[in-house]
Amino acid sequence: MAQYSIGVDLGGTNLRAAAISRDGEVLSKIVGRAELSLGRDAVVDDMVSSITRLREQCGDHDLVGVGIGVPGFILIEKGVIVGSNNLPEFENYPVRDVIEQRLGTHVFLENDANAAAMGERWMGAGKGVDDLVLVTLGTGIGGGIISGGKVLHGFLGMAGGMGHMTVGPRGNPCGCGNQGCLEKHASATAITGMARMMHLGTNPTSEDVYNMALGGDEKAKEIFVIMGRALGIGLASLVNIFNFPLFLISGGPLPAWDLFAPSMFSELKRRSFTYRKTQTRIEKATLGNEAGLFGAAYLGAPQEQNH
Ligand SMILES: [Zn+2]
After folding, report:
1. pLDDT tens digit string along 224-234?
2. How far is the CA of 74 from the centre of ligand 1 (A)?
3. How remote is the CA of residue 254 from the centroid of ligand 1, in Å?
């Protein structure tokens, strides 16, 4: 059997784990519910038992490591999570070391958006590209920066927080203390928020708004134009700062690409000299929810063996 690593993706609703070979082949996969309401110990137990099951299926001998992607900031050196709204009980708990001890194998803990960026770089739309940014549009906006083939962490592990980049100095207030954050204007939550303000349905999901726009609803279409504009403003800064060849967008609103991309690109052209003068690509990510799983598995493997 081929050498493999195990990737774990702990999300708000699902806990997913997969054994993935060094070539990126999924050998086995487990999808379960993330029982966050049962508390920290139950979640840790679930992670450990998922990993153990995969290890039993695929063989102890060929396992080279485990990577775990979780929401929140990760203090990379310490292997702890700080500031995760989904996982308050994990705050400053040595989760990496606890899991490592229980499994007796190398564990790497990473922020889920960073893991997703690495997943796209390994097996998705960023295959073979050493420098890229992934922007994920979800409840909030997360992102990961891959520079020189590695996750850019910053000095503690908090880099890549493009969701809180200011795109409008007098924009919507954000839980982070700022106002006009990108995620307050371009996330799935921002789309539904605008829909509510425009009285589109009672409690529409971003998919509902998308379907209304497809059906020709002018207000719904306008929402995606506004959202694309905010995204374009954010991307212009990212393109200017990084001069990377590739910027990927993922997340729930991605199917609405044709509705938001025109205003995104026009804003980008207007605001970024670098974008106008280079062959910078802005593209859809291709792995969807799987990106985090692939990235976690990739990062779980000892890095010197990666290529
Ligand atoms: Zn913010």
Report:
1. 999 999 999 99
2. 18
3. 21
CA distance 232 to 253: 15
| Predicted confidence (pLDDT) per residue in 131-150, tens digit | 999 999 998 999 999 999 99
Residue 176 token pair: 């982070």
Residue 123 CA to ligand 1 center (angstroms) comes to 30
Predicted TM-score of the model (pTM): 0.94
What's the average model confidence in pLDDT over 263-289?
97
201 or 141, which is more confident? 141
- Residue 216 pLDDT class (50, 70, 90 cuts): very high
Residue type, 87: L
CA of 173 from ligand 1 middle (Å) equals 8
Give me ligand 1 centre to Cα 185, in Å: 10
Model pLDDT, residue 263: 98
- From the CA of 27, how far away is ligand 1's center (Å)? 39
- In the structure, what pLDDT confidence band is assigned to residue 307 with cuts at 50, 70 and 90? very low
How far, in Å, is the centroid of ligand 1 from the Cα of 233? 15
Strands, sheet with 26-33, edge to edge from the N-terminal-most edge strand: 26-33, 14-21, 4-10, 63-70, 107-111
* Ligand 1 centroid – CA 181 distance (Å): 5
**What is the Å distance from ligand 1's center to 250 Cα?**
19
How far is residue 101's CA from residue 93's CA, in Å, rounded to a whole number? 14
Instruction: For residue 162, report the distance from its CA to the centre of ligand 1, in Å.
Output: 9
Is 70 exceeded by the pLDDT of residue 170?
yes
Distance from first CA to last CA of the chain, Å, rounded?
20
Q: How many angstroms is it from 186 CA to the middle of ligand 1?
A: 12
Distance, CA of 201 to CA of 223 (rounded, Å): 14
What does the block give as tokens for 228? 């694309």
